[in-house]
Amino acid sequence: MTAIKAKTSADEVKNALENLPRGYDDSYKTTMERIERATLVNPNDTTSSLARRTLMWNAYSYRALSLAELQEALELDLNKPAFRMSCPFDKQTLLDVTAGLVSVDSDEQHVRLCHATAQEYFDKSHETWFPDSASRIARACLQYLNRQEFSFPCEGLREDDELEKRTSQHPLLGYACTFWGNHVSDAGKDEEVVKAVDQYLQDPGKVAAFIQVAWYLSLESLENWDIRKGANALHIAAWFGLTEVIRSLLGHGLGVNAQDPAGGRTPLMLACRRGQASTTALLLKVGASVNTLDSAQSTALFEAIVGNHPEVVAALRSKPELNIKEEHLHRAQRTPLMLAATEDFFEIVI
Fold first, then answer.
1. What is the CB neighbour count within 10 angstroms for residue 310?
2. Which pTM value belongs to this model?
3. pLDDT tens across 305-324, in order?
4. pLDDT tens across 85-107, in order?
5. Which of 178, 102, 193, 86 is CA-nearest to residue 140?
6. Alpha carbon distance 143, 82 (integer Å)
7. Number of other CB atoms surrounding residue 167 within 10 Å
8. HEC string of 69-89?
9. Distance of CA 233 to CAs 10, 51, 260, 308, Å?
10. Distance separating alpha carbons of residues 71 and 112, to the nearest angstrom
11. I need a surface site. Which of 5, 113, 132, 265 has the fewest CB within 10 A?
């Protein structure tokens, strides 16, 4: 209807009616083309760029963003290292520029695409409209986490209060801490992303601040999050399965068998727990020990079995030194085979 209302003559209206979109996909494509034309008609018109960024975050975020989170995300500029929240785009502006493709709940806690079919369309047409979305969102999250305010963890007697204050004053912090690793993983071998992660993980203060916020949010946001204070860059990269980042980090002399001070877990153990097959393969290739025990007397093999990750178990079994008779003291002294059978993980048992 918007396209028809914009016509000024009977012939134009007739032509528009004859070329109405057929089906959801055609409707979404037509709307996106109309958004694109705004910049073609007027190169100084920034509404198309704002609409595209709004749609990108909505279509490819791992959960729906609140309006406040989206507003901070849209303030990020990958061409400028500094972040400054000046005058956030208001709700009506975002609704207008996206031409009906986005909706905001009444409490402003959820900004969504207009319909499930819109998500399906953007998933199918990803390479057409947003081919670099994973890279752009990953770099945006890292740029946000690199802010000076997050260069150290909250400490002292009022640590919990300060942490709650930090997360409430910086709306996007929770999302960035929770999902930056997922977006980096999606970006694959993107060199700019790998470089950005490498630099970020080399800053111990910022890493400590991230881990602290992740723990604070873990009950509601991070499933089975278990990276603790004192973990190094390799532990974090292994948890998220950031194989390309690990290749880069190994060049900095980090020990592949380093155990975190809180639980004695090695990067290999964390990768096995999470089922990160390619990361496991790389760590084994560069000499990760398969028989190291953590403080709970678990090994990489036990972690892979508990998580029911047959591919990872197969990779570990390729190492002749693997101890398959180790008894887990905290699991009724079961061996790996006994544990797999007890859990009915028949693919692993076979």
1. 18
2. 0.85
3. 888 899 999 999 999 998 88
4. 556 789 999 999 999 999 999 99
5. 193
6. 8
7. 16
8. HHHHHHHCCCCCCCCCCCCCC
9. 65, 36, 11, 25
10. 14
11. 5
